[in-house]
Amino acid sequence: MQYISTRGQAPAVDFKTAILTGLAPDGGLYLPADWPRFTAAELSALRGASYTDVAFEVIRRFAGDSIAPEQLRTLLAEAYDDFGHPAVAPLVQTGPRQWVLELFHGPTLAFKDFAMQAIAPLMAHFLAQEGREMTIVGATSGDTGGAALRAFAGRAGIRVLFLFPRGGVSPFQQEQMLELCSETTHVAAVEGNFDDCQRIVKALFADEAFREAVSLSAVNSINWGRIVAQSVYYITTCLALGLPETGVNFVVPSGNFGDIYAGYVARRMGAPIAGLTIATNENDILARVHATGRYAPTALTPTITPAMDIQVASNFERLLFDLLERDPAALCQLMAGLDRQGGFTLPEAALARFRAGFGAEAVGQQACRDRIAATHSATRYVADPHTAVALEAAARTPAGRAPQVVLSTAHPVKFNETVTEVLGFCPGPGQAPFAPRAAGARPEEIANDIEAVKARVRALL
Ligand SMILES: *Cc1c(COP(=O)(O)O)cnc(C)c1O
After folding, report:
1. Which SUPFAM superfamilies match (predicted)?
2. 253 pairs with which residues across the strands?
3. Which pLDDT score, from 0 to 100, does residue 438 have?
4. Which of 134, 244, 302, 375 is deepest in the core (most CB within 10 A)?
5. What is the enclosing helix (H) or strand (E) of 139?
6. Where are the domains of the chain?
């Protein structure tokens, strides 16, 4: 299996290199040269298989010769072993033909665990094979940091530092990240917003001498390994719903377009997916490009769904590549427009393809709160705000006879302030109501300054 860059200027690489490198050297994103496909018979044969078995069947098709099958099976069994539910990604019915896919039973209670738990052992395995070490630096708005700290802690030769905006993550998320710090895994609060954190990380990667000196790597949502691990639960869901002839409609709370793009990958592999609806908050660039064809970031609005407060949806470039019929020159032209004119307009044929495969809905904060309340009063189900954005988008886009599945990307306790404000209570990770702890340890602080962060990273070695 070969991976090519969306920008067309980097040599094709294998799975191992795509995962260890993250971003392609030409600034593009890696994706497979051809889509591996399940035949209908192969899919049917997976009915009743465990989550890990389906993950193995999906990921081995992308991994090619990079890892021995038995080794991959062992790593994946370990990856999903400490999820708090035997189904790993269980479905809960919330209405006629409507389900919520709970992706928050992993160790840090958000769907980021699905990808991190799988790519951490894979990366560690590949590094050990090559006798290399690695320093992972990233920016987080809350969930990615926790999942990465948890998945990479204690892995020989891998050091981790995540930056988060001071005061910009929920108290639960901050507490969780501080608890997950270890000798090799660290977080620091930056005096600034998420964009400042991301700008610093980008500057570190742009400095080639520094990058080489500390063996810098990234596990942000453009890493191909994360996408492929996330495509698994779309397939287990189709299997659990009996591979219906109508296909399944998925509604996905979206930010960086990684999660819903994984649904697109599952569809390319042959999973019966009828529709993929992008649910956004007020930061609605994806809904706007769907409605108008114009992709143009605007100022960021902070909301009660911070994981979706994103203006440039990095993984959209991967879909764009296919919408442009895999023409890297056409893609580079649009990306140049984004850099120079602050946006681009999709060609008509590409927009038509986008609309044929995807729907999109933008949901405001009041509608999100109302949906948390309405869902609870109708079904006693407690949704986190991100999930509620997708529940509201689902209510606006009836799926006809096809089953409709809303992805629940976080446990409500991670955003318990908003949930408590709406419902008067919030369930904890067990059955008991959540009782907030007294403010605990304070995070390490770091200046909003590239050189200060570089010095901090060097000190990790
Ligand atoms: C990361 C995240 C999202 C957005 O996922 P993308 O892959 O960036 O589209 C949505 N909800 C929660 C809770 C998240 O942590």
Report:
1. Tryptophan synthase beta subunit-like PLP-dependent enzymes
2. 279
3. 59
4. 375
5. strand 134-139
6. 91-106+224-423
Give CA–CA dist 111/167, Å, rounded: 22
Give residues (CB < 6 A) around ligand 1.
110, 112, 143, 221, 253-259, 307-308, 386, 409-410
- Report how far apart, in Å, the C-alpha atoms of 390 and of each of 5, 31, 216, 261 are: 31, 27, 35, 16
Average pLDDT, the chain: 94
What is the reported pLDDT for 158? 96
What length is written for the chain?
461
pLDDT tens-digit readout, 415-461:
999 999 999 999 988 756 667 665 667 899 999 999 999 999 999 99
- Exactly one of 16, 112, 414, 454 is catalytic; which is it? 112
Q: What is the DSSP letter of 65?
A: G
The four Cα atoms 325, 354, 29, 448 give a dihedral, to 10 degrees, of 150
User: Tens digits of per-residue pLDDT, 362-419?
Assistant: 999 999 999 999 999 999 999 999 999 999 999 999 878 999 999 999 999 999 999 9
> Which helix (H) or strand (E) element contains residue 229?
helix 224-240
Among 353, 348, 321, smallest CA distance to 35 is for 321
Q: Tokens for 12, please give them.
A: 């094709």
pLDDT at 206: 87
Q: How far is the CA of 228 from the centre of ligand 1 (A)?
A: 15
Positions in the chain short of pLDDT 50: none
Expressed in angstroms and rounded, the spacing between residue 422 Cα and the centre of ligand 1 is 22
pLDDT score, position 437: 64
Q: What is the CATH number of domain 91-106+224-423?
A: 3.40.50.1100
Q: What pLDDT is recorded for position 222?
A: 87
Number of H helices, E strands in the chain: 19, 15
Tokens 């994360």 correspond to 226
CA 125 to chain centre: 22
Q: Whose CA is nearest to atom 14 of ligand 1?
A: 307
Cβ proximity of 102 and 183 under 8 Å:
no
Q: Please state, in angstroms and rounded to a whole number, the distance separating the CA atoms of residues 71 and 238.
A: 27
Active site residue 112: yes
The Cα 60–Cα 67 span in angstroms is: 8
The pLDDT, as a whole number, for residue 439 is 64
